[in-house]
Amino acid sequence: MELLQLVIGGLANGCIYGLVALGFVMIYKSSEGVNFAQGDMMMLGAFIALGFGNTDQMGLPFGLAVMCAMVLMFGISWGVERVVVRQIFGQPQFALVILTIALGFVFRFVAGSIWGYTPLVLETPFAGQNLRGGGIVISLADLVTIGVTLVLTVALWAFFAFTKIGLAAQAASQNQMAAYIVGVPVMRVNSLIWGLSGAVATVAGVLYATRGAIDPNIGLLGIKAFAAAVIGGLGSLPGALLGGLIIGVIEPVAGRYAPGELAKMSPYIIMLIVLVTRPGGLFSQIQMKKV
Amino acid sequence: MRVVFKTSYDKDIDLHEHGQSRAKIAVLLAVMVALPFFVGNYYLAEAANTLIWALAGMGLMVAVGHTGQVSLGHAAFLAIGAYANAALMNAGLPFLLTFPIAGIITGLFGAIIAVPAVRMSGIYLAIATLAVFVIVEELVILLEPITGGVGGIMAPSITIFGISFDRYASLENFYWLCLAVVAIVTWGYANLMRSPTGRSFLAVRDSEVSARALGINVTRTRALAFGLSSGVTGLAGALMGHYIGFFNYELFSIFISINLLLVVTIGGLGFIQGAFLGAILITAVPQAISIARDNLVGIGIDLSGIPGLDTMIFSLILIGFIIYEPTGLYGRWLKIRTWFEIFPLARKDMFRRQKSYLKTERMK
Which parts of the chain span the membrane according to its record (chain B) (predicted)? Predict the structure, then answer.
């Protein structure tokens, strides 16, 4: 019973990792770059929602505040792509890694200057409500998290699999020049995907904030989300969610039955094992080039 | 415009292209050796710090700049070097023995990591090294008998042949020790890069496929480069431990890894000189910021209330360099020098970046 309780809490946690990982995967799918600032975008999204929604700030209703935050974060991420990331278009991936690490620090500084470094709590309508059944307690926040994540994953998967823009984004990631030749507006698609990943990050941030206080350093959670994305295989949306769930469940279970440091290491150990045995992740997309 | 007159084929791979560059290095070394006689203790300590950062930067440069393996976890190797050295010295071994052993331990650890890691490319390697960093950080806390756990460990003072090289009691000696290590490593590094091994590093960086076609064992080359890289970083870590004196796991945070990346990218990827320029920048900017902060207080602007300003400024510098000068400070210097060397003939678009398009790494 205790184990089941841990697993349910872990699933909800894993969904948040999975959502942040979805953001990585989206950008990876469209430009084959990895956005190391995704965790910080999640943090910024959560703070913007807090700024719109909390009564001592702007005091909008919760749903409206989240919508506003998503729109604003869409704009911010879209702008970041337009102004900064586009400058290194076509450069090796390494440049983007360093650029986004630096961007993450900028986001953190901005959030810290506006909202301060003391932890704040986002006011949500489902705080503190629990469902009980058969000796297990499930908080409403956990259920909402799991539900929203499932819906988002399916929606994004459908977006990339079936829509014109989604397919164009995948084409752009495989070969930019070829994508241009067949008429894909690569840069515009990239901006759009960045904006979308900002909105997804906001959802992740709000869901994270329903489970506890937030401060500008929660962006470091992004590192765990990487592990999730890599376990799933960068470039696979369901894989990212699966990776997030694996990490989310194993962490509390390891924390219960193993020393604390080992529990902290566990996501990375799993990730290394996956990388060593399957270098492209569980849903690998690496293919050999046939010459 | 200088014309280098070559009289033998060996001149093509000479360490110095012409006598003047050899003389310049000699003058620089002489100035560095004489530095303790001119500056006070504060700046001498800063100089030693810069040298240690340059050493660590050279370590990372082998991996990132010369073999094209991005590592986000080099702070882990600094930590291993520092702890190995301090632990061995606490066990009673002399510094002359523990210092190289610390380097070898770190190098072996790096090579062991590299063996599975070389199967990964680009982004996967960066993330794997990040994971290794987190694991090492937790291991440091777990291995309390050796590392002192959360409490930390004391780096004992260095004595070689009865002469004290303590960081506080005899700072000049410590500085000279750092300088000697850095000079030897730099000399070795520069020589490595003109040997077949060093050339194969460059070949692997530029194109794995063509390197393999030329008969280079890519896996072995990358593992060797990563091992060397971590070994040199381990040496820097050992010195850094002595420089700090008393340290725990918090000294080697993820920010150190990122600062190291900053050193190599801002300095200039693929140039040994870049590691030095980057190290100077990274140690000088915090000083400049604190001086500027003091002066701004004088005219009524108080910045001390803004935490994280240093990181913010570093980030902006980094973003600026990535976008406008990807070849770093040394690359910029080379451009300026070329402009003067060919004086009236320089043209505007001489160094314009070629338009390039990203191709997938998912095809190998």
Answer: 25-45, 51-83, 95-117, 123-143, 150-168, 174-192, 223-245, 251-284, 296-324
